[in-house]
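FAQ

Q: What does a record look like?
A: Structure on top, sequence underneath. For example:
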């Protein structure tokens, strides 16, 4: 166990604010502890000498040494109470009391004081505004919930206390047990990352599950979860959306990669399995807590009912798994063992009169097949089939082959005792075949997570000082946006740009065009005009003799479109051959929780319409950059589909990595779009650039 071990395994627990008043939270917590906790329970209340038959102390200084304190006093004396505890040497505190940041400015100041006090005395604080915590090995229920948890190997955290009470009520009925339970509350000191680290080092925790509404430190969470999921699965239900992404919409990336997209990418990179519902959360957890890892994705289905067998097959088709293709020897053996009317192909239908012996023989043959990585036993109740005996047979076959098996014993009371028998051996039973397959799918996904190795981000040789000078231009403007006039920023980080220049008079435009071989592209340059093509702000294929007039025309169109727009000039740029190239976009939007969110996808004018994009949290290495390229639907265009000459994908992958380094090096970059990044057979070229800079953050960055 880690630094929080005393939080879950204390010898002495104090309840600060203990009372015998009916209906009081302080009484409920004290009763829960008194009735189940294996250690000593210490009430603290200056106005009581005894509470519920236990000696009561005036303060922490006069009480016996306290390993864990549960604070349930009025909000205005919480800080004073915790200071008293810290002075007495207590390091672990659970604050039940509400009335902190969730209530307004006064509560927020109180929470700031709590954080400062915890820092000063190095306290481990859960809450405030917490239901409390539980640890089943020592019978500790330090909550004011009505239910004790059953003992098990799942550790559970929740941002909602009400969610915990509802889950425990349901889990007790289902026979699902827990190791530790934590109501996170306001997460003033300890948050989800702390408990992921703690439980990841706990040999008694087989699965970490949680209900979260947000993640405070996305980068820290990814780092911790990646380390933990090498051995211990993490399954989360994440609810709620922030509007940070919606507020960003000044860039294509900001519009597409909102905060919820950041959570999707961040949790995926962290190796977390994300459940879509509470039911799925526990379907995953039950399989992960008790079953061995499948060696392959092939699933065998053994049933006595054709319809449920087809439903199970459909569920496998909807998952990342596949129906196992039986070897010829398996099919021959099944044909010899089963009645002539049985189906010996997958799914195996042992037909309606199948007894336990026939089920067991079919399952034995299926599990021996080299293409089978897991199995589902789907049974409908009949007069000749004993579910209790079938449960024993399934357990025997699983232990013999060490291959994961889940069951779907359909029915009500008839299945209850068999379900309990299976549960004791770690085998989950599901009423719905699709949920059974979902459990196996979670096992296969976690296997892949454990096998995945994330490469370290490469550090390219770049001109960081030059980049900072370019970003500093934002401090000399009325707003904090930069555009194509800052293309040198990309050059400083090794991202190629076409030959060209931004000019502010038509004569200079002609001079620049004459220095570029062939016709040129001309674009209006204004931080106030986002979609230049929509207003006729881009002219393609301009000959040298037409450059002067094209310059005047572009400026006039921009003035007519937006008279108050700031016009920095016109960009005169080398014209690229787009016939053999693909327009892509690479960009970044800085998420408040996870930090720089990289985006890659199909670019040009269709980026926000098609939204064919992949997202990752930076920094990333080559492997993740390559995954981003392969993930988009338009990837075949880059690889040379339908006779097209393949693009230089290696340069695309390198560009994503270089952008990752740029936005990691400079947290002052809030948003950035390179659109389009033209990818052709001879490499890549960044054609257009837009970014938003935080000048205050820039002042703190080293050159």
């Amino acid at each position: 166990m880690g630094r929080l071990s005393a939080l879950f395994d204390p010898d002495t627990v104090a309840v600060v604010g203990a009372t015998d008043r009916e209906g009081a939270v302080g009484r409920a917590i004290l009763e829960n502890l008194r009735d189940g906790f294996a250690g000593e329970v210490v009430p603290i209340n200056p106005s009581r000498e005894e509470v519920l038959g236990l000696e009561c102390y005036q303060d922490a200084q006069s009480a016996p040494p306290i390993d864990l304190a549960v604070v349930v006093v009025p909000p205005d004396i919480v800080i004073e109470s915790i200071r008293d505890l810290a002075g007495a040497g207590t390091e672990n505190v659970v604050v039940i009391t509400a009335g902190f940041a969730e209530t307004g400015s006064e509560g927020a100041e109180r929470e700031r004081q709590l954080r400062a006090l915890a820092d000063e005395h190095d306290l481990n604080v859960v809450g405030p505004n917490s239901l409390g915590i539980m640890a089943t090995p020592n019978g500790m229920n330090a909550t004011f919930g009505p239910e004790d948890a059953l003992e098990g190997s799942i550790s559970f955290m929740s941002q909602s206390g009400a969610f915990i009470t509802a889950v425990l009520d349901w889990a007790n009925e289902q026979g699902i047990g827990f190791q530790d339970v934590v109501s996170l509350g306001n997460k003033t000191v300890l948050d989800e990352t702390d408990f992921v680290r703690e439980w990841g080092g706990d040999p008694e925790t087989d699965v970490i599950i949680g209900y979260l509404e947000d993640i405070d430190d996305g980068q820290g969470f990814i780092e911790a979860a990646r380390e933990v999921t090498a051995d211990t699965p993490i399954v989360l239900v994440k609810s709620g959306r922030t509007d940070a992404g919606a507020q960003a919409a000044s860039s294509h990336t900001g519009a597409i990669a909102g905060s919820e997209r950041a959570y999707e990418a961040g949790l995926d990179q962290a190796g977390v399995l994300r459940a879509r519902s509470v039911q799925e959360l526990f379907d995953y957890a039950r399989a992960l807590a008790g079953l061995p890892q499948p060696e392959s994705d092939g699933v065998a289905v053994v049933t006595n009912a054709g319809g449920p067998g087809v439903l199970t097959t459909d569920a496998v088709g909807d998952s990342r798994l596949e129906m196992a293709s039986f070897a010829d020897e398996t099919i021959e053996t099944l044909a010899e063992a089963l009645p002539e009317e049985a189906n010996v192909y997958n799914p195996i239908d042992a037909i309606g009169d199948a007894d336990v012996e026939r089920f067991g023989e079919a399952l034995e043959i299926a599990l021996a097949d080299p293409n089978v990585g897991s199995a589902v036993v789907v049974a409908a109740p009949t007069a000749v089939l004993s579910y209790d005996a079938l449960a024993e047979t399934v357990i025997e076959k699983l232990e013999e082959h060490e291959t994961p098996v889940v069951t779907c014993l359909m029915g009500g009371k008839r299945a209850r005792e068999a379900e309990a028998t299976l549960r004791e051996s770690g085998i989950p039973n599901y009423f719905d075949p699709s949920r059974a397959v979902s459990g196996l799918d979670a096992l296969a996904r976690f296997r892949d997570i454990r096998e995945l190795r994330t490469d370290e981000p490469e550090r390219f040789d770049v001109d960081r000082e030059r980049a900072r000078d370019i970003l500093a231009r934002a401090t000399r403007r009325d707003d904090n946006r930069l555009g194509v006039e800052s293309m040198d920023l990309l050059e400083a980080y090794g991202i190629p740009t076409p030959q060209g220049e931004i000019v502010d008079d038509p004569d200079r435009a002609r001079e620049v065009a004459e220095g570029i071989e062939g016709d040129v592209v001309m674009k209006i340059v204004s931080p106030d005009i986002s979609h230049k093509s929509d207003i006729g702000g881009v002219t393609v294929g301009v000959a040298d003799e037409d450059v002067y007039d094209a310059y005047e025309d572009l400026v006039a169109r921009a003035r007519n479109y937006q008279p108050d727009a700031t016009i920095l000039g016109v960009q005169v740029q080398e014209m690229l051959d787009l016939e053999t190239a693909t327009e892509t976009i690479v960009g970044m939007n800085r998420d408040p929780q996870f930090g720089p969110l990289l985006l890659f996808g199909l670019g040009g004018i269709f980026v926000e319409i098609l939204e064919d994009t992949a997202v990752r949290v930076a920094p990333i290495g080559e492997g993740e950059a390559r995954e981003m390229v392969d993930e988009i639907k338009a990837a075949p265009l880059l690889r040379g589909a339908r006779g097209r000459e393949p693009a230089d994908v290696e340069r695309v992958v390198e560009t994503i990595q270089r952008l990752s380094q740029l936005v990691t090096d400079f947290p002052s970059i809030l948003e950035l779009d390179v659109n389009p990044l033209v990818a052709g057979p001879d490499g890549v070229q960044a054609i257009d650039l837009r970014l938003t800079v935080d000048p205050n953050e820039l002042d703190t960055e080293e050159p």
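Q: Is there anything notable about this one?
A: The two ends are 42 Å apart (CA to CA).
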